[in-house]
Amino acid sequence: MIVLHILGILLTILVSVSIYYACNQGMARNARGQQTRRFIIASVLAWLPVMVSGTSLSFGIVTAWLTGVVWMLTYPLLYHLTNRKSSPDYENYGEIACGIYFFGWLSAIWLLGGGVVAAVLEWLLLLVSLAQVVYYLLYGTCIDANGMKIVQDSHPNEVIEFAKSYPWWKTMGTVLAVVLLLVGAVWANLSDSLGLGGHSAPLTIFLGAYVLGFGWYIFKTHRGMFVRSGIVTLWLVIKEYSANNKRYVSEMERRIADLQVKQLGGTMEQPHTVMLVIGESASRDYMSAFTEMEHDTTPWMRQMAEDKQHTVIYPNAYSCAMHTVQVLEKALTEYNQYTGLQFYESCSIVDIAHKLGYRVHWYSNQGHLGANDTPITLVANTSEVAKWTKQDLGRVQYDQSLVDFLDELDPTQNNFLVLHLKGSHFNFLSRYPQEATVWGEPSVQDNTLNYENSLHYTDTILEQFYQYGVSKLNLQAMVYFSDHATVPDRHRSPNFSGFGATRIPLMVWMSDTWQALHSERWQALKQNTQKHWTNDLAYELLCGVFDCQSNHFDASASLAYEEYGYKHDELLTYEGKARIVDDES
User: Fold this and answer.
1) Strand, coil or helix: 163
2) Buried/exposed code over 70-80 (b: 16+ C-beta within 10 A; e: otherwise)
3) What's the burial of 155, exposed, middle or buried (CB within 10 Å: 0-12/13-18/19+)?
4) pLDDT of 108-139, one tens digit each?
5) Which of 140, 239, 317, 354 could cross-link to 506 by cystine, CB 3.0-4.6 Å?
6) pLDDT of residue 391
């Protein structure tokens, strides 16, 4: 028996050291020695429950060991496969040490008679590893900060729609695999009577102390092995980022006290409305208002663009990121890729509108993400009215539902209206009702045609917003842009996969009255039609549309000013990691 235990220790050392040396690069010699010693000591300690109890290598021990090895291997290997060609120096050892200790801890739990507990814990740990592998297979990259933000911000309906985008048998197969994994773990841990406890009192005390001591050591919040695992560290970093965003609320009073805003141009004597419509996943490459194409996907916008006396469209607009939250935390505030400000330090366009005397109404079909306190929700909740369409689990809510909110606006007041669309968010087939199908067969999956239909449907919704605003709210200015784009025949990636996911539409409309009161702004908007722009500068654009001066507004960053200064080769996307000038479309 002792020979098997020694072989087990040696095998654990060999596996852990091999993973460490194979999946890290650029480590200093002293780091190699330090971690090798750590793994040797950890392996001996992890095998103590098995050795002290004199247990043979039964199923309960084997599954605990395999669970530890899978935890050791997954993140370091996927990180290495992703970064080995681009990064000369990285070291992921937390998972490896943690995986070794997981083996010892789970073994002790099993030996105490906690077979079911051990099985559930193993299942949960294996699911974390399995999810990382699935992510890598889908996107060809290890999960990073961008991907983790998406995971933490995803609405349950988005998860359901993502699952529905795959053939039913793949989804059911995945669910079945998860269930069978749990069943297998339970069976393995209950198949041997050794896992039923019944040890001597001294051994029981030792195992109990081991479980408690190692449980504390693994999971303690300060420098515990679990929180030092790469995947857990990444999760906590993004949670801290989200927590930091909450400072947006706590520091609001200070920001507002410092904010100074002055109206320029003429004064509008009649109550009126300024409208911002935020699209979703709309690509100008597939919009007939921007691109010559077989299908007239945006007839209303195309007709509006032909009226050059009132409408300007921008063929060189780009998104600053490929995920809604990462885009809009910048687009709606001073925070962008080009300044040193952070989100929680920044004033928003809602703050500007308030200082100018507007009542702000915010209506969204994106689902209330307040549980995650996303930056979008934090900004929206500073409005006088902030409402989200009802998002019943598994139920599709079309953008038409936003039209019903418009009756809530008081036409005798100055209103700033923000409408956040679901637009062309995947799954495209779910973005429009069957009767709105223009190309292809209703309810038939064809990503490109479904996408074009969704753009056409969005176009009809934009027309309804415009018509209602003009006829009932004295609409004076309307701005529409998309958060990011998408390429319909490709799976969306959380990482940069080409400029197709960044080419967005931007349209500005102004009434004759507003143009007369703010002629310099209108002339600048027309003059800058061919300029390149990223939508993290939308805050500055809207400040220009309002025609205001502020200590929290840089006119040289606004398309509505002649001094707009960003050159093509200065503009960035993917949160500053990719240059717009490299787009060769």
Assistant:
1) helix
2) bbbbbbbbbbb
3) middle
4) 999 998 889 999 999 999 999 999 999 999 88
5) 317
6) 62
